[in-house]
Every structure is written in structure tokens, then in C-alpha cells.
Amino acid sequence: MEIDLGKVPFTMDFHPSDNLVTAGLITGDLHLYRFNADSTPQRLLEIHAHSEACRAVRFINDGQAIITGSSDRSILATDLETGSPITRLENAHEDAIFSLINLTESTIATGDDQGCIKVWDTRQRSCCNSFNAHEDYVSDMTFASDSMKLLSTSGDGTLSVCNLRSNKIQSQSEFSEEELLSVVIMKNGRKVICGSQNGTLLLYSWGFFKDCSDRFTGLSPNSIDALLKVIDLFIWLNFLLSRILLTLNI
Predict the structure, then answer these.
(1) Where would I find the WD repeats (predicted)?
(2) What class is the 1-92 domain?
(3) pLDDT for 4-56, tens place per residue?
(4) Which of 69, 120, 176, 250 is close enough to 56 for a disulfide, judged by CB 3.0 to 4.6 Å?
């Protein structure tokens, strides 16, 4: 199954319980599609969400809304059914927003081009904490809900661990020789895997984040921009977004 978006996509997310996928484009547009294995995908929504590139998108509130972050520094929440804006936060960061993640039912986190991570209360529509976690863009984030720890990777080559209970940066790895672009928690929380710019996977043991315990090299000739956990296994997705159409393998 293939969806031709017409413009370069920066980000995408799947609905938690329905056959829906949303994508953010370099133009700032937000698209929503319904897909089935035996039919052509149907576009349900197309809005001009941001004045600059839509870099991050996630379904929130059990899929009732879509939240997006942009290089124009704004955050937008959009109603899934009507396509109407629920709320918009202008100048949410001092720098362009690069990444976004759901944390709890009422909180999300965003990361920007200068390494700042902000945690937002979606009910109060306000920032409840911020961390200067990195020296370069926050490429990816993942959340350990049992310990309330937010893990992030960055273009500066580090992995950071932010403790949301103590509101402190608990740990940070040594600088890697390459940019770290993606992160996933594995082995029931015992291992953390990061994907890098040169196609190497870095393996960290939980609680020992200063240096990786192992490396997997030669797995990909391209950068590992995203990691997906599948029944405690992992696959890497190389998004050559400037060269290919957004392809959904269902």
C-alpha cells in the first residue's frame, strides 16, 4: 500500500485503535488517511497546520486529537473529527521544535533544535517543566512510565535520562562519534538501544548510561532514523524521505 503525499513528509503516526495514519509535511500541512489492505487509502483531513515544516506529530487523548510541533516553534492540537484547532501555542520553544512524544494521558514532551526538552500539561495547556538536556537537536524520545524517566537522543551524540519525579537530568552518556537519531527501550526495561547516523546500533544497560555496552555495526548503509519495538525485538526504519514516497506496509 502506498500513499503519495505530494510533498516531502517529515513525520507520521498511527492511530492507537483505528486504521488511521497521519503525516506532517515539509510545507506545514497535516494529512490524515484511513487505510485498508484491500482498498485505496482515503484522505480524511488536510489542513495547513503550521507556517513552516511540520516536524512532529502524535495522536493524543486515545486518538481523539492530533498534536503537532513545527520548526515555526508552535504546537497545535487538532480535533480528529472536525479538523478544527483545539488550541495553539505560539513560540512554545525558543528554537524550532524537532520531536514530540506522549508521556501520560495529560502530558506530552517536545524537544527543539538546541537540545531543550519541555514537558506540557495538556489540560492546563502550559509548560510544567523543562530540561536543557543536550547541546544539539533532540532527535528522538521515549518514556519509561514505571520509573517516570524520559530518555532522549540528540545530534550532539548523547543519550540523556530526565527524571520527571525529581525534575532533574539524572544521567547523560559520553559523547558518541556520530549523531544519535533514535531510541527504544528493550528487554522489559533492562536495555536501551539507540540508532546512529552511520547505521550503527548502540546498546546500553539500564542504569549504566555513561557508555554503551555493545555496538552492532554494518547493519545498515544509511542512518537509523527510527526504531520500533515488535514483541521485544527491534527493527530499524530508514526514512529516505527526500527520495521516496511515504510507503505504508500493512
Answers:
(1) 47-88, 131-172
(2) mainly beta
(3) 888 999 999 999 999 999 999 999 999 999 998 888 899 999 999 999 999 99
(4) 69
